[in-house]
Amino acid sequence: MLKKLFLSFCLLLTAYCLPSYAGVIKGVIRDSTGEGIPYSVVVVKNSTYGANANVAGGYFIELQKGTYVLVFSAVSYTSVEKTVIVGDNDVQVIDVTLPSASRTMATFVVTAKGDRDRGKEIMKLVIDHREQYLDKIQNYKCNTYQKTSLERILIKQPDSAIVKIAPPPPPDTTKKKKNKTSKNALEDELKDKQLNLIESYSQTYYSAPSKFKEVILAYHDFADEKHFDGAGGAQEGLEYGEHEIAPPSGYSENPYLLISDAASMDFNFYRNQIDAPALCQRPLLSPLASTAFLNYRFELLDSFPEGNKMIYKLSVTPFYKSDALFSGLIFVEKDSWAVTSVNLNVNKDVLYFCKDFCVVQDYEEVDTGVFLPVRREFTYTIHDGKYNIIGNTRVDQSAYEVNTTLPLKIFNDEIKHYNDSAFDRDSLYWVDHRTIQLDDKEINYIHVVDSLENYYTSPEYYATIDSAFNHINVWSFLLNGVGHRNRVNGTEIFFDPLIADCVPLGVGGYRQKLGGHFNKDFKSNGYLLETDGQIDYGFLNHDVRGKVGVGLTYIPLRFVRTFVRFGDYYDQVNNYASLEQVFARSNYVRTKQFSIAQRMEIVNGLFGEVTFEYCDQAPITGMKLEQWSTLLFDSLNTPTDFQEYIKSEVRFELKYRFKQKYIIKQHKKIIIGTKYPEIRFFYRKGIPGLFNSEINFDYIELGSQDEMQFGRWGTSDWNVLFGSFLNKKDLRLLEYKYFRGSDAFLFGDPMRSFQLLGPTLSTANTFFRLNYIHHFEGAFGSKIPLYGKLKITSAVGGGVLMIPDKDFYHEEFYVGFERIIRIKKQLFRLGVFGVTADSNITKAALTWKVGISYYDTMTRKWSY
Prior knowledge:
Blueprint: H1 2-17, E1 23-30, E2 41-44, E3 50-52, E4 58-63, E5 66-73, E6 80-86, E7 90-93, E8 96-97, H2 103-108, H3 113-128, H4 130-135, E9 139-154, H5 176-192, E10 194-207, E11 211-221, E12 273-274, E13 284-285, E14 296-306, E15 309-318, E16 326-333, E17 338-346, E18 354-367, E19 370-384, E20 387-402, E21 414-418, H6 427-433, H7 440-451, H8 453-456, H9 459-470, H10 474-480, E22 482-486, E23 491-495, H11 498-501, E24 502-503, E25 511-522, E26 527-538, E27 543-555, E28 560-572, H12 579-582, E29 588-603, E30 606-618, H13 627-633, E31 645-657, E32 661-665, E33 668-673, E34 678-686, E35 696-709, E36 715-730, E37 737-739, E38 761-763, E39 767-775, H14 785-789, E40 792-803, E41 808-823, E42 826-839, E43 845-856, E44 861-862
Parallel strand pairs: 1-7, 1-8, 11-21, 21-32
Antiparallel strand pairs: 1-4, 2-3, 2-5, 5-6, 9-10, 9-20, 10-11, 12-13, 14-15, 15-16, 16-17, 17-18, 18-19, 19-20, 22-23, 23-25, 24-25, 25-26, 26-27, 27-28, 28-29, 29-30, 30-31, 31-34, 32-33, 34-35, 35-36, 36-39, 37-38, 39-40, 40-41, 41-42, 42-43, 43-44
Helix pairs in contact: 1-6, 1-7
């Protein structure tokens, strides 16, 4: 064991020294009080090469062997120059103190008008050549090394960002007590310093204008060493909302990992706009855009020779601090008017999670007249409680082949492919392919994870982690639930806590419930067994009800799952009713049910589900009801009355996502989504006579929905739905098509409901529904100084519902103001909407409502 650890650590040290750079200069840039200066800059004098300090003032810059003059600078501070001599495998620590710029000097330092005019003149030439450089690149292939790290530091201890931590000794397995202490100390090291480190080496393919394909040849997520997801749960809860057969789309990433693939790192400033949905809701306007002079001011700061070319250094200043714009530096090569380097920050007011976000890109002429990035660095800071999370992604791209013949069918629906061997690369492979140096914190992190590798995969570790889940105390019964997990066997059993089992608004009054689940993850083949169930007792009517569901996923890459459910329980008539009606007695019937459903992805993007359901449907008119429920629900408390009947029904549903993009990673398919509208087909058949079924009807439904981005003018969402009963020879009230009623003050999901429709509406006829909303996302107001600071955006939309056979129509329109707030890792968009509607039943009215939508970090989209 010790021999393995020693060899591993030596290899890591070798990896630290072997990349193409000869040495490293690092340290802290401080002010006169000793505090680190956030986001200060260090550059090699008379060159485009440099690096940014983090929020604590810590910097790290790689240099070839030689003598350099480093210039340290920051806004409102006087620049300092340091001469350094870099040798082979040289690591130097240079801390620098920047004196504050004199206020007197600052008062009289005025940029010459000629510098501004010259800066504008140079940028006009750059913008005039923009299309030329875009047109020169039809495709390319390159090698990509990417390193992403997340580090946590205390906000009041900025020096902790750069303090060197000596590698701790490996765990001593000879003494159990000492071994445990060592493990705890090592785990604390991971918890308090480095959160994550991901390395990848890949081949990247690009085709204009925006197609990417990544073939991952090597990949290591060091956080995976200390995480175990266990069996997926099938929690039992309120079945509320529209049914969904397709798995959710999105990235299986930490929301703080903002740069995760080729598309997210594609800050192509030659385009007018840069779409960065993980950063901000509105596309960023490039300083090279055709409308740049309406949004930016450019100043010529310096000019210097680099090689045999003259380089212009220009500052970029946005006119509007609340718009999705950049500030910083751009370096331009004279005569060719090509961008050779950028060091740009995104305006803070538009960022979702970040306090700051900086992008550095260095370009090289990889072919005649073709300039492409060879070095990218993305640095950002996220405030998280008493900590700052420092994110850093560094990318090295080399061996470009431009406008070449790419492999046939390289650009298909799979946008990223992980080779099977990518996860098994040894240290020697990384030594040969790691082109960016690791800093001391990252080396220490790798060593700690490697030291604990065997421990993290041992039954002892699983038992330790399971013990916390399996531990039972008073809070387990009251709030958290009681469970037992065995990660080695992949099994988990769980019982809901008391707070979830107490149902004060139950059918017929208070009900006591016992619910839970049992799951088993078959690691050898990826199968997953899921069960859920509940049993509940009503004290007023002395009735016992319950249901059980059992599902098995047995072809994970095709999402093939068979699910069986049976029970005797109180079911909802409309499972997407308004909040005031969803618990009302008129919305419940007694159901004795058996169903079996088969789901699968037929071809990429085409999902299907077939369900057979047998039900005995009975009213709850004979039940005793609590008096308080009549006071609470008023007329809605009267149970729906009908004659008991038996139903045998077949449901068939298809959902198609045309050209759905996906990733295959370790035998799992991760769906990314599609830029095309999603299409849905739904068919229901009530089968008369089958198992004494008393119904006979046919119903079809066709729908489509999509999200459309209109550049910097915002995003539109629409949803259209058409349904009709083709046969209703014996159609019962419970089988009607139901629509969600409106809530008194709550703005419902505008894609699936209406705001002023009134109570729950149902129909046995043909209907047409259309919903639309557009979020302007700062297109209006971001350029107004005071209004822009409030970060308030606007939205408009409306909807139409028509039932021609009943001569019913309803139309509504709304205007709203929204603001995004963040609570830890979750974003919410709060809105106040003025809604007006008209129908042939009620007259036009104006009502104010409050709504809230949430940001899904998996899909990087809003719920509406």
